[in-house]
Amino acid sequence: MSNPDQPLRETLVQAAELAMDWATRVVPTGAQADALRQVALQLCAGIREGTRLFGRTLSDDATLPALPLLVTMSRGEMMALANRISLADSLPPAPQEVGDAEQARFLGALALSYAQAHDLPCVSALLRIGTRLSLHDPWLTEARDYLVDQQQPDGRFGLLCAVLRTLDDGAADEAMLRLQVEVLWALNEVASTGSGASATPPTRSGPSCSMPAIKVSPGLASQRHTQCEIGDSDSGIGCV
Asked: Cβ(235)–Cβ(179) under 8 Å?
């Protein structure tokens, strides 16, 4: 759990070490799960060292759309937007009519709305967007602290639920590891730009086919993006 009196870097390093312990103990039952586990371990190392794992390699359009569109955007579109912005080699200037403070407050409010639904991947995605755009707001900070607070005593983020337990071992491993990667990616971005972060270049160019994005249902509106029960998080595959 995050400690308001503890320096941010110390909090993130502690979370990374716990997550690394958990990932080290996991024995993946499939190639995808093993690849995700390796990415999770590398993200943990990046958090501890204050280095960004994924580089800025994409030249695709990474413009933040009009703020109201973020509310009606599907879950899949939200995740894709976060990936484009996180990996963009350059970002266009924000529209002059929208200031940084307004963007930061809007992203923070949206992240907290997803937090109320226990949707860790979308909270992580919005935190990555805010971090990449160098936006600061108490609500974005609260979203970051929310992610840290979702870490369980064994080191993983999120809770298991009955739906996940019905999956076979390979699918369950993959679902849980996907969730870890999403959260750790957001914390890695924060750690690499926060206090005490190193200027060391990123160690990877970006996610590859071995680290697929969270699977989502096309067209699922953000206002009703999950059917998980209270205390669960929708990983896109099942509630965790």
From this structure: yes
CA distance 97 to 55: 30
In terms of Cα–Cα distance, which of 177, 224, 211, 195 is closest to 86? 211
Two tokens, residue 84: 């484009």
In tens digits, the chain (240 residues) has pLDDT values of 556 556 999 999 999 999 999 999 988 888 889 999 999 999 999 999 999 888 777 666 678 888 889 999 998 999 999 998 988 887 766 655 678 899 999 999 999 999 999 999 999 999 999 999 899 999 999 999 999 999 999 999 987 655 565 666 667 788 889 999 999 999 999 999 864 333 334 444 333 333 333 333 333 333 333 334 434 444 443 444
Residue 109 tokens, joined: 């409010």
- Mapping DSSP to helix (H, G, I), strand (E, B) and coil, where does residue 209 land? coil
Per the DSSP assignment, residues forming a β-bridge with 54 are 204
Distance CA 171, CA 158 (A): 16
Report which of 80, 141, 86, 123 is spatially closest to residue 233, judged by C-alpha positions.
123
End-to-end CA distance of the chain: 18
Residues 6+ apart with CB under 8 A from 47: 12, 13, 15, 16, 184, 187, 188, 191
Q: For 100, how many CA atoms within 13 A lie in the half-sphere containing its CB?
A: 9
> In whole angstroms, how far apart are CA 210 and each of 7, 190, 213, 234, 236?
34, 23, 10, 21, 17
* Packing angle of the helix pair 120-132, 75-87 (nearest 10 deg): 30
